[in-house]
Design brief:
About 40% of the residues lie in helices and about 20% in strands. The protein contains 19 helices and 21 strands. Strands 4-3-5-6-7 form a five-stranded parallel sheet, with helices on both faces. The N terminus is likely disordered.
């Protein structure tokens, strides 16, 4: 174990056991790669085979989803009879992709379909009574939700009273009553893997994948091309990453194959067409200057996704949906530019909120176990992002509260040792509304209750000093001499990396450093030469505040490092380079 107390983190090496030599021989991989797979809890030959070699043919059957036959039958009948279908989605990346898949997919099948995405501030999350009344006035006959609806008992009961057919597609948790019974909305069909009766092999699929699987079943019911549903694969992949689903099992296959499309490789349903056929998505990639790069989960999570989400945060998610539905390249270019500008504004507003939050915490609440910060000028849609940044900065649970039209609204992000949802349940008397799970939650309260709420959380946090130390898990202590081009390629072949299958981390002790120099116009990279305790050297780079890194490392002797090896290509020359993620003096 290594520790770097000033970063409030401790390093631990995985000690999970397996016959790594046998696994390596069976799957023709390095023993280090076998160890990485075991560290991610891939144990059986079947799990490893699916992970390494799974294809779209290995995706779980849509027939395993609850109520899928009933839902597809009702939708297919509505398509044939030209009934008015109203799709109700959500304003985040998963909701936008879900809505697009159903809207465009059903329209291609001949459906009379339109949509409604709630406004984040005016409507709040999910379908509500006002949206149902609006659909009724518009003479909608079938109400189809995606990425929401499972908790909308009152609203969907009203829809049934109005004589609508109601189908829920969702992936969120099911509420239970005091007796532990599921509280399910009165819909004609509920397609949600979290239902107790579900026999789907995993609960870890997003709303867009649920919608995508339903579309496949509808196409089969209508006798349409069985491969046509694959035209929406990249949107299922984007939503899977954007909604932070675990990247194992079929999610890994969906994301890996979706990334192939985004990177201009052959489309699975068309051996000729290259890349995505969606004009808006293609235009957005061009506008972001990443269409010629190797797009991976990082680009979805931190470049593409934020632009899609920015519309729902600061304006209307309709803007993002229009980008995907337009067939006009000029309009696509205009919307793409607008989304990028919105995201830049969002980043600026977020940064200002983070700096204000840090200042307030350091001035007034630095000793609190649970950080509750009031930022009245912050846009309420950014509270969760700012809370996440404050949580990472201080490694404490953080709740950011903003001023709303009817009181205060807040959003929280938590650390491993603190169940935020349970904490809010205990503090219910201070709140007018709340919801969420262990790591993230949302809430509403009156301004007069804020101080009492803050005090209650801190008096009852149950947190200890050791809970504020972040655990960092290391795959292996690896000397530089073990690294080769072939090994790096094999590790990279484990991508996509993300939630549930994080990029591997390696460690080395007693490392000497020399030749440090600052790179980049923003001085955010430090290039150096690292030599491990066995005398093997390698070029390395660290990202961050390069000037501070240079000062600290110049005064250090030998250090321990966490790193990831990459192949650096520059000027026609290929070399091994270490990306140093953290260090301990």
């Amino acid at each position: 174990m290594w520790a770097r107390d000033q970063m409030k983190s401790k390093w631990f090496i995985y000690s999970k056991k397996a016959d790594f030599k046998a696994v390596a021989a069976k799957f023709h991989i390095d023993q280090l790669t076998a160890r990485i797979l075991r560290n991610r809890d891939l144990c059986s030959d079947e799990e490893i085979e699916l992970f390494l070699n799974g294809t779209l043919k290995e995706l779980y059957s849509e027939e395993l989803l609850p109520d899928i036959d009933k839902a597809a039958g009702l939708i297919s009948a509505a398509v044939r009879e030209k009934k008015h279908i109203r799709i109700v989605g959500d304003y985040d990346i998963d909701g936008v992709c879900s809505t697009y898949i159903l809207l465009d997919g059903l329209s291609r099948a001949g459906a009379n379909a339109d949509y409604r995405i709630p406004d984040r501030i005016r409507d709040g999350y999910g379908i509500n009574v006002n949206i149902v009344e609006e659909a009724f006035r518009d003479r909608a006959e079938l109400l189809l939700t995606c990425d929401n609806g499972i908790a909308a008992v009152e609203a969907l009961a009203l829809a049934k009273d109005h004589g609508m057919t109601v189908i829920v597609t969702d992936h969120h948790n099911i509420r239970t009553d005091d007796n532990g019974n599921e509280v399910i909305p009165p819909a004609d069909a509920v397609v949600d893997v979290k239902l107790g009766k579900s026999i789907y092999p995993t609960e870890e699929i997003c709303g867009a994948v649920t919608a995508w699987k339903l579309l496949k079943k509808v196409y089969a019911s209508l006798g349409l091309d069985e491969n046509a549903w694959l035209d929406y694969l990249e949107f299922a992949a984007i939503a899977t990453v954007g909604d932070i689903m675990t990247l194992t099992g079929e999610n890994r296959i969906i994301v890996r194959e979706g990334l192939k499309i985004l990177n201009g490789q052959v489309h699975p349903a068309d051996t000729v067409r290259m890349g995505t056929a969606n004009i808006g998505l293609r235009t957005l990639l061009d506008a972001l200057n990443i269409s010629n790069k190797h797009i991976d989960t990082y680009h979805i999570g931190f470049v593409i996704g934020p632009c899609i989400n920015a519309a729902g945060r600061l304006e209307s998610a309709d803007t993002a949906l229009r980008l995907f539905t337009t067939k006009d390249e000029a309009e696509a270019a205009e919307i793409s530019s607008h989304l990028i500008a919105l995201n830049e504004s969002r980043k600026s507003m977020t940064e200002e909120g983070v700096l204000d939050g840090i200042r307030i915490i350091e001035e007034s609440y630095g000793s609190d176990n649970v950080l509750t910060v009031y930022l009245p000028e912050l846009h309420e849609s950014l509270a969760g992002i700012v809370a996440g940044r404050l949580k990472e900065k201080f490694y404490k649970p953080a709740i950011v509260v903003t001023k709303a039209s009817d009181g205060l609204k807040g959003s929280g992000r938590s650390i491993e040792a603190y169940n935020m949802f349970e904490a809010l349940c205990a503090a219910e008397k201070y709140l007018t509304k709340f919801g969420g799970h262990k790591q993230a939650a949302g809430l509403s309260l009156k301004e007069t209750e804020l101080d009492g709420f803050r005090d209650f959380l801190n008096e009852n946090s149950g947190l200890k000093d050791t809970d504020f130390v972040k655990k960092v898990w290391i795959d292996a202590a690896m000397p530089f001499g073990y690294i080769s081009f072939e090994l790096i390629k094999e590790i990279e072949a484990l991508a996509p990396f993300g939630s549930g299958f994080e990029r591997p981390v390696f460690a080395a002790k007693n490392v000497s450093i020399s030749g440090m120099r600052i790179l980049g116009k923003n001085k955010n990279a430090l290039k150096l030469r690292a030599v491990d305790e066995y005398g093997v050297g390698a070029d390395a780079v660290m990202f961050g505040d390069a000037e501070n890194l240079l000062r600290e490392l110049s005064a250090a002797g030998k250090i321990s490092i966490l790193y990831y090896p990459v192949i650096n290509e520059f000027g026609g020359r290929r070399s091994i380079q270490l990306e140093i993620k953290d260090y301990s003096i």
